[in-house]
C-alpha cells in the first residue's frame, strides 16, 4: 500500500471513530451528566495511554532541532484544537442532535482554506470561493427547519459547534507544519496532554465536584470516548495529516456527517427531515467539489 493510500485509510478510519463521539456524548447526557465532567472523563481516561506512549518513545530523538517557540506553538494548538474545540462541541450537543452537529462541523475544510489564506497568504481561488458558498448554503438549508420560534436553543447550540469547527480547523492548519518537527506520536501525545491539563484547570475553577456520583454507564461512555473516539482516532488523524497534508486530510471529513447520521439513527433513533438531508447533500457536494478541483490542479 502506497504512502498516500495508507494516509487515506488512516484518515477515513479516524474520521469515522471521531464521529462516534457525538453519539456517545448524547447517550451519556441521558444520565444528566455535566458537560465539563464528561469532557474531563474523556481526557483523564485517555491520559495514561498518551503518557505511556511518550515513555516508550522517550529515546527517539526528533529529526530536526525543536526550538522553544515550537513548544509554544504546540501548547497553543493543543489548547485550541483539543480543549476549546472539544468543549464547544460538548456544550453544543446539549442543544442539537448528533447528526446536525456533524453537519455543522463538516464546514471545517472551508475554514482551513480561509485560515490558510489569513495566516499563510495562500490565495483563495475561484473554485474555493464557490465551494465555500455552496457549503454554507447547505448549512443554512439544514438549519432552517430546526429553528423554533419558541427558542429551543438550536441556534445557540449550532453557534457553539461552529466555534468548535473553527478551533479544530485552526489545529489542522497549525499541526500540518508542526508534526514533521516533533514526529506524529510525540506531537499527538503532547497536544492531548496539553488539552487534558487545560480541562483540569477549567474543572478546578468551575467544576461541580461530583465526579464520583454518576451511574456506571456514564463512566463506561467516558472510557469508550477516551479510547475509541479520542485515543485511536487522534493517532490515525495525525498519521493521515503526516502523509497527506492538512488540506487533503480535511477532504476526507466528508464521511463524518454520513457516519454520524447512521450511528445516530441506530443508537439514538434520530430522524432527519428531507430539508436536512438536502442540506447535508449540498454541504458534502461543496466540499467534494473543492477536493476534485484541487486534485485536478495538483495533476496539472
TrEMBL record:
Q: Which Pfam families match?
A: EamA
Keywords assigned: Cell membrane, Membrane, Transmembrane, Transmembrane helix
Q: Using the record's annotation, list all stretches that form the EamA domain.
A: 6-143, 156-291
Residue stretches spanning the membrane:
7-27, 39-58, 70-91, 103-120, 127-144, 156-180, 187-206, 218-237, 249-268, 274-292
Quick one: a GO cellular component term?
Answer: plasma membrane
* Location (main, coarse): membrane
Where found in the cell? Cell membrane
Q: What is this protein called?
A: EamA family transporter
Membrane topology, as annotated, equals:
Multi-pass membrane protein
Q: Which SUPFAM superfamilies match?
A: Multidrug resistance efflux transporter EmrE (SSF103481)
Amino acid at each position: 500500500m502506497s504512502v498516500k493510500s495508507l494516509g487515506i485509510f488512516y484518515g477515513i478510519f479516524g474520521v469515522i471513530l471521531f464521529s462516534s463521539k457525538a453519539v456517545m456524548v448524547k447517550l451519556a447526557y441521558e444520565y444528566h451528566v455535566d458537560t465539563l465532567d464528561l469532557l474531563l472523563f474523556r481526557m483523564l481516561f485517555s491520559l495514561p495511554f498518551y503518557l505511556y506512549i511518550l515513555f516508550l518513545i522517550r529515546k527517539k530523538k526528533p529529526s530536526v532541532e525543536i526550538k522553544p517557540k515550537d513548544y509554544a506553538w504546540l501548547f497553543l494548538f493543543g489548547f485550541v484544537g483539543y480543549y476549546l474545540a472539544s468543549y464547544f462541541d460538548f456544550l453544543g450537543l446539549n442543544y442539537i442532535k448528533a447528526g446536525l452537529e456533524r453537519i455543522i462541523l463538516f464546514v471545517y475544510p472551508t475554514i482551513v482554506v480561509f485560515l490558510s489564506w489569513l495566516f499563510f497568504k495562500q490565495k483563495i481561488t475561484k473554485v474555493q470561493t464557490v465551494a465555500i458558498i455552496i457549503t454554507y448554503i447547505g448549512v443554512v438549508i439544514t438549519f432552517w427547519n430546526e429553528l423554533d420560534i419558541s427558542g429551543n436553543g438550536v441556534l445557540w447550540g449550532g453557534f457553539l459547534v461552529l466555534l468548535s469547527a473553527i478551533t479544530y480547523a485552526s489545529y489542522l492548519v497549525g499541526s500540518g507544519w508542526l508534526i514533521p518537527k516533533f514526529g506524529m506520536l510525540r506531537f499527538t501525545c503532547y497536544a492531548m496532554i496539553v488539552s487534558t491539563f487545560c480541562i483540569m484547570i477549567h474543572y478546578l475553577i468551575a467544576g461541580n465536584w461530583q465526579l464520583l456520583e454518576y451511574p456506571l454507564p456514564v463512566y463506561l461512555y467516558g472510557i469508550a470516548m477516551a479510547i475509541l473516539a479520542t485515543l485511536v482516532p487522534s493517532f490515525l488523524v495525525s498519521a493521515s495529516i503526516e502523509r497527506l497534508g492538512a488540506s487533503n486530510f480535511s477532504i476526507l471529513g466528508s464521511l463524518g456527517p454520513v457516519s454520524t447520521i447512521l450511528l445516530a439513527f441506530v443508537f439514538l433513533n434520530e430522524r432527519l427531515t428531507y430539508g436536512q438531508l438536502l442540506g447535508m447533500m449540498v454541504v458534502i457536494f461543496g466540499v467534494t467539489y473543492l477536493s476534485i478541483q484541487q486534485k485536478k490542479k495538483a495533476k496539472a
